[in-house]
Amino acid sequence: MRKVAILGIGHTKFTFAAQKTAVELLSEAALSAIRGSGLASKDIQAMFVGNVLGDFSEGQGMVQSFCADDIGARNIPASRFEGACASGTMAVRDAFMWVASGFYDIVLAAGVDTVSKMGTALGTRTFAMFTDSHYEYPSGLTFPGAFGMLAHLYASTYAIPLKRLKEQMALVSVQSHKYGQHNHLAQIRKEITVEDVLRGPMITSPLQLYDCCPFSDGAAAIVLASEDAAARLTAKPVYIAGVGQASSGRFSSQKEYLPRLRARELAVKQSYDMAGIGPGDVDLCELHLRTPRLFQYRKHHSRRRAWTCRIRSWRPTVGIRRFGEGWQDPHKHLRRAEIQGTPHRGDRGLPGL
Questions:
Q1: Number of folded domains in the chain?
Q2: 135 belongs to a structural domain
């Protein structure tokens, strides 16, 4: 299997109800990534795009094909991936595999969403279709509802007082907004307090408004290339060391694992195995944050000061900490981050985005 490098990246601003269409947002991110890689659109051999619920938000399907045409990469193979919150990551993984296999040398992977155009009611209802349509969806289960129940189960399983858990989760929301403020592409750029979180409207117990991320419109893209192709364009290529993907069935079939999510654990293990590393080798972990996860920052000394992120409630998933301990101490680590400075731009906090 060949090594695969990242040559260029592109990113639009995240907004509420963007004036641009999904195709326009996707094209903007794609062209930015192509320019950053030093290539032209004609050099892209295939496109892989994650797009969730585009058929509902705009009544627009096949955004990948229209984007390929609009950016000047006409007639190339263009595929769309639908995997709820993981849609964009799935596109990157598949793009990686095609290049690693030797089938393509240069491809583009991207993700685009315009869910906020649907509004909260329709957006929540359509996302709920990613539960089982026969056994879960009819009961009224939504994504916030599912994570709310998981939070209650987490508290019960590990004997955590719910009030204490809510206070700790609130600190994570405060942090996410704090760092989102420093990102010029962020959707929400304002700081909040723990009191703001705890006074917010209840969405689904125990999750309140600021515990949850907003719907957002935006796109991001990367150009991937084989080792030989990358060597012709840069002296310092950035290689993808490992990827992973797994799936789980309906929530009701996972009772022996919940509140852990088995697919998440398996995907992480696949990534470790492919990269030939273990949890102790990881300096930074960035994740999709639909609802609060508890983590800490620690300073990493190098020629240039940087920050590394240790995910707390996800640390068990990545093999760093035992399950049920991630909630315990975000306060002192958040305070340390406030005193010592702002972390690197890699972590912006999804609620901030």
A1: 2
A2: no
- Token pair in block for residue 161: 């007082």
What is the domain extent for residue 61? 4-119+215-239
Q: Do residues 176 and 341 make contact, with C-beta atoms less than 8 angstroms apart?
A: no
C-beta of residue 330 within 8 angstroms of C-beta of residue 171? yes
Of 180, 204, 239, the one marking the end of a domain is 239
Angle in degrees, 0-180, between the axes of helices 143-157 and 119-127, rounded to the nearest 10:
60
Q: Find the angle CA(7)-CA(306)-CA(342) to the nearest 5 degrees.
A: 110
User: Both tokens of residue 82?
Assistant: 């639908």
- H-only helix segments in the chain: 22-37, 54-57, 63-70, 87-100, 119-127, 143-157, 162-180, 194-199, 227-231, 262-275, 330-340
Instruction: Say yes or no: 57 and 114 in one domain.
Output: yes
- Cβ neighbours of 61 (radius 10 Å): 12
Tens of pLDDT, residues 290-323: 554 433 333 333 333 232 333 334 455 555 556 6
Residue that wins the pLDDT comparison between 157 and 286: 157
Pair (107, 146) in one structural domain: no
Please write the tens of the pLDDT for every residue from 27-56.
999 999 999 999 999 999 999 999 998 889
Q: What is the pTM of this model?
A: 0.83
